[in-house]
Design brief:
The complex is a heterotrimer of chains A (about 575), B (about 280) and C (about 325). Helices cover about 30% and strands about 25% of the residues of chain A. Chain A is α/β, with parallel strands linked by helices and about 575 residues long. Chain B has about 280 residues and is mainly α. Chain B has ten helices and no strands. In chain B, helix 3 runs parallel beside helix 6. With about 325 residues, chain C is mainly α. Chain C contains 13 helices and no strands. The chains are: A alpha/beta (about 575), B mainly alpha (about 280), C mainly alpha (about 325). Chains A and C meet through helix 2, helix 3 and helix 6 of A and helix 1, helix 9, helix 10 and helix 13 of C.
Chain lengths: ~575, ~280, ~325
């Protein structure tokens, strides 16, 4: 196997004095032709900057290579020193020899050019095709990445496509010139789990077909296991461990690697669920009965109602005191809308939501996903924690402050936090503040809407532990909304799976996760990346989520359920 | 007060703030009458004298000291500018805030009304109002205030809508916080940034418009000097006494420049894109 | 947050197109109605009896019968709502009333002056865009380098200088350096005598054009800087696009969007700001007409002129919205 890329002691810095502001501090690695290297790290590790240095795109973001060398080897044996190359040479290399796909498919495509025009441009720049030849090539490229109705799609604009489709378009653009190296910078982070699986399958297939080398950047070490030959773990700008995939994953030497591997929630197919649960016959504290939430769709200047988006259609479940019910699903499943309906943020179109009056006037509280957006940046912690109490009619006095300090300490912060502002805390700390705030009024139920999804993996684990402790101590019931099966496995007693606005399977966590009955649940579980699945064979499938838009007056057929065990119900699927 | 320190570190901010400070001092002195000469007194013997040690910026056709008149003129213009922006900012913020908060029907009605006002080129609307009320300083304040209100309404409405949809406002609703609490503590507090920028830029614009109105004879009335009036008077004397045009012209330009520079600096500093990128 | 996987709408969908356009077209007459209301009733608030304003002291010499017949002629004896209704009805026929000062139909008087103001505004707009956009793009591509700072300095100075100051300075330099005063007074129509017309319009257009050019420069520069740091520009570079491709093909179409929006707003300013410039250069345009009409209490003329200018402004805004939709497919086609 010949070497394709050789990076020695790479140093990259930003700003006016890059030597003093290094983000990458001496990274070295080799990549053989046709092999895949995964670079894994959390935010701030320097993994993206390393990737952007290989094709010198960092230069446009204010960065500069301050040391080291990057050598790109050609099939004829010559080598190009990327660090010393001039801009015209780099332009020829970019696209033709090194292709790149990025993390945010939404913003990575030009909104004012059609998809076809953008793919054709790639062909024009790297293969010199113009006119009808370029259009044909673009159409073929779309078909290669399995986008249906390719000829039609060429005329679409990016905003008319879904995230998964946009990422496929990006891949199609990159393939235009058959590059020998593909750099993928977190290409699936912004996508749903099942869509992620589809994209990973596509990449694996193409890589094999084209004998393309790949550098795959990610923070998800589980994802890496399925696709990489070698792995490099980065922290604070340095490579702390690197080597063959099996060697590093099975026998990690560095503390940080070990820490990462441990912190990443492993999905154990239901065998690692919690055993402390509430008795089955305890009276439920929240009952949801036949909940439906529909948003009207209007057409024309007079806002004529032509239909409705059935975000949630006929959902029933009970939540018992002290237990965690996880609602799992991808975007569009209706899980967040359900949570919002329970809290009254969204009006239920029909159905009944009953929350037993508990220890205080507002028994249900919520913790949101984005720790940066759920705290008013202009208020200090004391004001932020006081708000629920003030809204409930209490006064800001010594008793209230004592409670604040008590809760702050319970979530792992101190009374010094009171006069500070949100921007002075990290993401994980802010989420703890949100939890403390939710507990101010002594609720019985806390709804956690993707509350750990935006946190780094190591922080995630600690916050989950905190939540479990608090649940035991205060006897809280949790409604845990998530898309991450592994996280769910750690915290849930019972699991409900939602798809297209309906619950398709619900029951004990061990049962649902260990012996899934519904086809969607199976698909969801199969798509979860896991370290154990090495170089797995992703099955390429292009199932699209059905549209939730229905004509006026449409009523879904009554649900038929079957029992698959004690406390395990499955919606009966209609045979296609 | 940290904001002040940050502004002073910014190059344009420093210059802008310095210019405004100088002008404020001059205006203050002019308003209380601490000028080198009496701005209204006509030194008939010394008519149309070029700049000298006695008359720093020269004299005009009636023998009045240009520098002293400028000081008084600055204070008149500043009063109009600050008062009118205060009116516009208050009215506009209230309208924009409520349009964003109540939404739907109220939003439509309020913003369409603003559109009607915006359908008039600014000078035209000001002319109309002046025609109704008669020329003068108070009228200028009212006119500029009304003209600029819809702009504040628009500038406030967009961020208010964005904030309304953010999670911390949703959280407030789940606690049952009162509308008043949400509007003041959550919305208004977070609107301070765009408002500050807009107020500064509005002051620049108000000065510009006020001088235009006085130039047309519709603002402050003679003999009270106003920067625009002085420029209008200088036109016929242009070749004989260019200083009568140069100094008022430069003064207007510098004053407006000061506010523009400050506004720019504030906009750079308070740009939401550079905020919120926490640790 | 993962993206909802809902099928997109075809690129040639007429539905969303109609939606945006029809909405704009529907609000247009509504706003126009509001404008007419405002104009009509605002004028009525002007102090001073219309008859006295028209005739001055001679009004005192009228007998009651003469006064009554004058009032009847101008429709001043009807209740105000009726007056509004009659005026509005007249609008649809293109009848804006008779000017008291000129004794001719208002529309005729306005239309005689309109071409000058229109030409002035269009020329100024042209100059400002032709100077401002390239300057802004240039400055953005050389951000923070000396050439950029120079452009920004000039733009800042330009924006801080009122148009009449610019005008006065230009006249001064002309008369001092070239001992030449620009032709003032009556207007030479474009098609009769292009050279004469343009020599008359040159100075005023440059005056107005420069102050607006400053604003265009700044908006273009900041829009360009924003766009150049957007993700899709990075994608284009990763495909191997050259700097020229990136700036002109990828960045500029996106950066123009805010510039176009600004142009619409500023065109209104031009229409009105023309007032001051017309005054300085003694051009018989619409702005001066309105000014004089206000001081002469010529109600019908003021009403007509203000309404006319506002109408033009709204039309331009509508055109700008259409241009906006043409530039940005997200507006044009709706979507998520």
């Amino acid at each position: 196997m010949s070497t394709l890329l050789s990076v020695r002691d790479l140093r990259v810095g930003f700003g006016r004095a890059p030597e003093d502001n290094e983000v990458v501090k001496g990274v070295s690695f080799e990549l053989a032709a046709g092999k895949t290297l995964a670079i894994v790290g959390e935010s701030g590790s320097g993994k993206s900057v390393t990737a952007l240095s290989v094709n010198r795109l960092v230069d446009f973001g204010g960065g500069r290579i301050t040391g080291g060398s990057i050598a790109l080897y050609r099939p004829d044996g010559t080598a190009v020193d990327i660090t010393a190359a001039d801009e015209p040479a780099l332009q020829r290399i970019r696209g033709r020899e090194i292709g790149m796909i990025f993390q945010e498919p939404m913003t990575s495509l030009n909104p004012v050019h059609t998809v076809g025009a953008q793919i054709e441009e790639a062909f024009r720049l790297n293969r010199g095709l113009v006119g009808a030849a370029a259009t044909r090539a673009a159409r073929d490229a779309l078909e290669r990445v399995r986008i249906p109705d390719a000829a039609q799609r060429l005329k679409y604009y990016p905003h008319q496509l879904s995230g998964g489709m946009r990422q496929r378009v990006m891949i199609a653009m990159v393939l235009a010139s058959n590059p020998r190296l593909l750099i993928a910078d977190e290409p699936t982070t912004a996508l749903d789990v099942t869509v992620q699986a589809q994209i990973m399958a596509l990449l694996a297939e193409l890589r094999q077909e084209l004998d393309m080398a790949m550098i795959f950047i990610t923070h998800d070490i589980g994802l890496v296991a399925g696709i990489a030959d070698d792995i490099m773990v980065m922290q604070h700008g340095v490579a702390v461990e690197q080597g063959a995939l099996d060697a590093v994953l099975d026998d990690p030497r560095h503390d940080y690697t070990r820490h990462l591997l441990q912190a990443v929630p492993h999905f154990n197919a239901g065998s690692a669920v919690r055993s402390d649960g509430t008795a089955r016959n305890a009276a439920p504290i929240v009952t949801v009965d036949n909940l439906a939430v529909r948003f009207p769709v209007t057409r024309g200047p007079f806002r004529r109602k032509t239909g409705a988006v059935h975000a949630v259609d006929g959902v029933d479940f009970d939540l018992r005191p002290g237990e965690t019910l996880a609602i799992v699903g991808e975007s569009g499943s209706g899980k967040s809308t359900t949570a919002r309906a329970i809290l009254g943020l969204v009006k239920a179109t029909r159905g009944r939501i009953e929350a037993k009056a508990g220890r205080s006037g507002r028994p249900v509280q919520m913790v949101f996903q984005d720790p940066y957006a759920s705290l008013n940046p202009r208020l200090d912690v004391e004001a932020l924690l006081a708000e629920p109490a003030i809204a409930a009619g209490q006064r800001l006095d010594a008793t209230l402050r004592a409670r604040m300090v008590f809760l702050l300490e319970r979530v792992g912060l101190t009374r010094e936090a009171l006069p500070r502002y949100p921007h002075q805390f990290s993401g994980g700390q802010r989420q703890r503040l949100c939890i403390a705030r939710a507990l101010m009024l002594n609720p019985d139920v806390v709804v956690l809407d993707e509350a750990v999804s935006a946190l780094d993996v190591s922080v995630q684990a600690r916050v989950l532990d905190l939540l479990i402790d608090l649940q035991r101590e205060f006897g809280l019931a949790y409604l845990f909304i998530s898309h991450d099966m592994a996280v769910v496995e750690r915290i849930a007693h019972r699991v409900a799976v939602m798809y297209a606005g309906q619950i398709v399977e619900i029951g004990q966590a061990a049962a649902v996760l260990g012996a899934p009955q519904h086809s969607y649940t199976r698909r969801l579980i199969a798509a979860v990346p896991a370290i154990e699945r090495r170089r797995q064979h992703f099955t390429v499938d292009v199932t699209q989520v059905p549209s939730l838009v229905r004509p006026l007056g449409f009523e879904p057929p009554a649900a038929k359920w079957r029992e698959a065990g004690e406390d395990h119900r499955v919606r009966v699927e209609e045979s296609a | 007060m940290d904001l002040l320190k940050v502004v002073l570190r910014h190059p344009s901010g420093r210059i802008g703030a310095a210019i405004i400070l100088i002008f404020l001092v001059l205006a203050g002195l002019g308003a209380v009458g601490l000028t080198p000469h009496d701005p209204l007194k006509q030194f008939v013997v010394d008519r149309l004298k070029p700049p000298s040690l006695t008359y720093w910026f020269g004299t005009d056709l009636l023998g009045r000291d240009t520098f002293s008149r400028l000081m008084l003129g600055i204070s008149e213009s500043f009063i109009v500018a600050f008062a009118s922006v205060a009116v516009a900012a208050t009215a506009g913020t209230i309208i924009g805030l409520f349009a964003a908060w109540w939404g739907h029907l109220w939003d439509g009605v309020l913003m369409r009304t603003m559109d009607v006002l915006l359908a008039f080129p600014a000078i035209l609307l000001a002319l109309l109002i002046v025609a109704i009320e008669g020329a003068g300083m108070v009228t200028s304040i009212v006119a500029i205030g009304i003209v600029y209100t819809p702009i504040f309404a628009r500038v406030v409405r967009a961020p208010a809508l964005a904030i309304k949809g953010r999670e911390f406002v949703e959280a407030a609703r789940t606690f049952g916080s009162s509308q008043g609490y949400i509007l003041t503590r959550h919305l208004l507090l977070n609107l301070v940034a765009p408002l500050t920028v807009q107020i500064t830029l509005a002051l620049a614009w108000a000065l510009l418009t006020e001088s235009g109105l006085s130039f047309l004879g519709l603002g402050t009335q003679p003999p009270a000097p106003s920067l625009g009036v002085m420029l209008a008077e200088s036109k016929s004397m242009m070749t004989r006494a260019p200083w009568l045009m140069i100094f008022p012209g430069l003064t207007i330009m510098l004053a407006i420049l000061g506010f523009n520079l400050l506004g720019d600096a504030l906009r750079d500093i308070l740009d939401p894109r550079t905020q919120g990128r926490g640790a | 947050m993962p993206v909802t996987a809902i099928y997109g709408r075809p690129a040639n969908s007429r539905a969303a197109d109609m939606n945006y356009l029809t909405q704009r077209l529907l609000t247009f007459p509504l706003v126009l109605l509001g404008v007419s209301l405002l104009v009509f009733f605002a004028i009525r608030l002007v102090p001073g009896d219309a008859i006295i304003a028209m005739l001055g002291t001679e009004a005192g010499l009228l007998t009651d019968a003469q006064r009554a017949s004058l009032e009847a002629y101008f429709g001043l004896d009807q209740p105000i709502i009726v007056q509004y209704g009659r005026w509005l009805a007249g609008l649809f026929e293109g009848n804006l009333g008779i000017s008291v000062t000129y004794g001719k139909p208002v529309l005729e008087v306005i239309l005689a002056r309109f071409p000058l103001t229109l030409e002035l505004s269009l020329l100024s707009m042209l100059i400002s865009l032709a100077v401002g956009i390239p300057a802004g793009v240039f400055a953005a591509t050389r951000a923070d380098r000396p050439s950029d700072l120079l452009v920004r300095l000039f733009a800042m100075l330009g924006q801080s200088t009122p148009s009449f100051v610019v005008g006065l300075v230009l006249i001064y330099f002309l008369s001092v350096t070239f001992r030449m005063l620009p032709a003032m007074g009556s207007f030479t129509p474009l098609f009769e005598d292009p050279i004469g017309n343009l020599s008359q319009m040159l100075l005023p257009s440059i005056t107005l054009g420069l102050s607006f050019a400053a604003a265009v420069t700044r908006i273009s520069r900041s829009a360009m800087l924003d766009v150049l740091s957007d993700d899709y520009v990075r994608t284009a570079r990763s495909k191997g696009a050259s700097q020229r491709d990136v700036v002109w093909k990828h960045a500029l179409p996106n950066a123009l969007i805010p510039v176009v929006t600004l142009s619409g707003v500023e065109f209104g300013y031009l229409l009105g700001g023309a007032v001051i410039v017309e005054q300085i250069f003694a051009l018989p345009g619409l702005g001066r007409l309105t000014l004089d009409a206000i001081s002469q209490r010529d109600y019908p003329l003021v009403q007509g002129a203000v309404l006319f200018i506002a109408f033009n402004f709204l039309v331009v805004n509508l055109l700008v919205d259409l241009a906006y939709a043409a530039l940005d497919p997200r507006i044009r086609l709706g979507g998520k």
